[in-house]
Amino acid sequence: MFIDRLVKKIKEKKSNVVVGLDPRIESIPKCVKDKYFKEYGKTLKAASEAILEFNKEMIDNVYDIVPAVKPQIAFYEQYGLEGLKAYRKTCEYAREKGLIVIGDIKRGDIGSTAKAYANAHLGNVNIEGITHETFSVDSITVNPYMGGDTLESFIKEIQEKDKGIFVLVKTSNKGSGQLQDLEVAGKKIYEVVAELVDELGQETLGQCGYTSIGAVVGATYPEQSKVLRKKMPKTYFLVPGYGAQGGTAENIIHSFNEDGLGAVINSSRGIIFAYKKDGYSEEKYGEAARTEAVKMRDAINKALELNNKCYY
Amino acid sequence: MFIDRLVKKIKEKKSNVVVGLDPRIESIPKCVKDKYFKEYGKTLKAASEAILEFNKEMIDNVYDIVPAVKPQIAFYEQYGLEGLKAYRKTCEYAREKGLIVIGDIKRGDIGSTAKAYANAHLGNVNIEGITHETFSVDSITVNPYMGGDTLESFIKEIQEKDKGIFVLVKTSNKGSGQLQDLEVAGKKIYEVVAELVDELGQETLGQCGYTSIGAVVGATYPEQSKVLRKKMPKTYFLVPGYGAQGGTAENIIHSFNEDGLGAVINSSRGIIFAYKKDGYSEEKYGEAARTEAVKMRDAINKALELNNKCYY
Questions:
Q1: How far apart are CA A101 and CA A78, in angstroms?
Q2: Is residue A181 pLDDT above 90, yes or no?
Q3: N or C: at which end does chain A have fewer Cβ atoms within 10 angstroms?
């Protein structure tokens, strides 16, 4: 099961950190991109090659200290086909290095369309009896607005292909409350979605006691995390919003169960563009990322220990 | 403004029909795909080339009788980079033929991620001062679950780049009610979203009296369409669910305003795979699609006339 693989990696690496691979050419070190601009001009290909080199350096520097990476596909889509090739190669490279890859694609659709997304991102596509892999990752993020059938469409794929999904429940952005916090018969919308995730998840329960249908629960809403942790006791949380968006190790402690498991915490800019911070240099951008990933791992582990939630 | 361009096309063609370009290799006529299988084997490239030829035949047969086409990107993503190349070329070809292209991508994210999606699908991306187009279409579908900031992120792009979005309000699938129909202080969730769309739309009001922020309202829920029409008087509706999903010309009449405008109706399988129905032949799959698109146009126009909603 996907979730067993994820928990195994977490315990092996003693780390709950997910590195968000959200590259944008403006923030890629000059020493990386200028080489490609020289070779290919200021083209989509140059940008995409620079991003791929940057990502590989990230992966090389963190693969032994984090269980997973999370590329946000929008940052690749914007560079067109070349960008998506970099996305695919990044995912492949990360998986080769033993990392779990969570494709942050936030797709959500139903029936044959959901199946097509699953073909694209979780499994493979069949062409007259021959199967082909395309953007295959271990897990993707899914948007629930269209209803439970959106999620149900993925269950078969999860079971057959040993994959996972993380459903948007309570997102980390400022405006997330506008729909998600509305109250329906004494329940918030995010609680309604949480119950759905909890229920559907039972069909994908792993040996580790967690399910392969996870939930996205933002680090920026600690009180809601507490409620949601109880609503979805067997659901793994993917927690965005740490670092750059304002979440701290204290904020995210409620996302964990008493066993110290149940959550992975994502940081993107705070790690991958750490080289911009005081004390780091552009040339050693990989080392800078590693240092920040270690700091984050240690801060979270320390917070877990202080709360008697040690998992290793 | 995007919306003025759309209304102009509707009036010119006397048609509210949108053709959904949702190809899957299983349903592409043998006479088209076998050629490519012979040349490239049963590969992603062969499937994608066959789909592109099929789409071009569709476009050639309908460009003079419909205002717009709506490719659903999932059906292209599943064939990987080759599939997305076919998506891009399909969009380009349709725009060359004077069609409005609505990319059914249902993306939804915030801040810099939303900007990246807008770069990818509505505008262009900047690489050190040089701009590049990638998947540029006229309009995309957007998922509102993350909140109003999801939509706000697109407004600047809409205004600057002369584009539009259609926000998922009430979708056509069976499970759509699970979240969208929940009642919050006397209001359904889809009404809350509708009010948001109506309000934000004011910033993109065109000369035609409609706004460039549209709404997706399923043909399968006529009663809800009636309510939503009143809630969003200046919003254009993109109506899926006609034909194969069960929507009829009678069902969708409430999606229109008294001026006979305010809605475009999508049919995918019912038109593009019409050749499978009795009375058509596989070799003339383009003609079959045209015949069905004409029938649908006429059925909708007749229903509009009967309801005194003539727009031409």
A1: 20
A2: yes
A3: C
Q: How far is CA A238 from CA A144, A217, B146, in A?
A: 15, 6, 15
Rounded Cα distance between A119 and B73, Å, is 13
- For A276, other C-beta atoms within 10 Å of its C-beta total 12
Query: Could you give the CA distance from residue A137 to residue A104 in angstroms, rounded to a whole number?
Result: 10
What number does CATH give the domain B14-163+240-306?
3.20.20.70
Residues of A marked active site are found at: 106
The DSSP code for B242 is: B
SS3 assignment, position B1: coil
Distance separating alpha carbons of residues B155 and B203, to the nearest angstrom: 8
8 Å CB contact between A147 and B112? no
Interface size A-B, in CB pairs within 8 Å, comes to 230
pLDDT in tens, A186-219: 999 999 999 999 999 999 999 999 999 999 999 9
CATH 3.20.20.70 fits A2-108+136-306, yes or no: yes
Of A78, A177, A182, the CB nearest to B125: A78
Distance between CA atoms of A292 and A287, rounded to whole angstroms?
9
Looking at the partner chain, which of B127, B143, B189 has a beta carbon nearest the beta carbon of A42? B127
- Would you say the C-alpha torsion B226, B227, B232, B235 has a positive or negative sign? negative
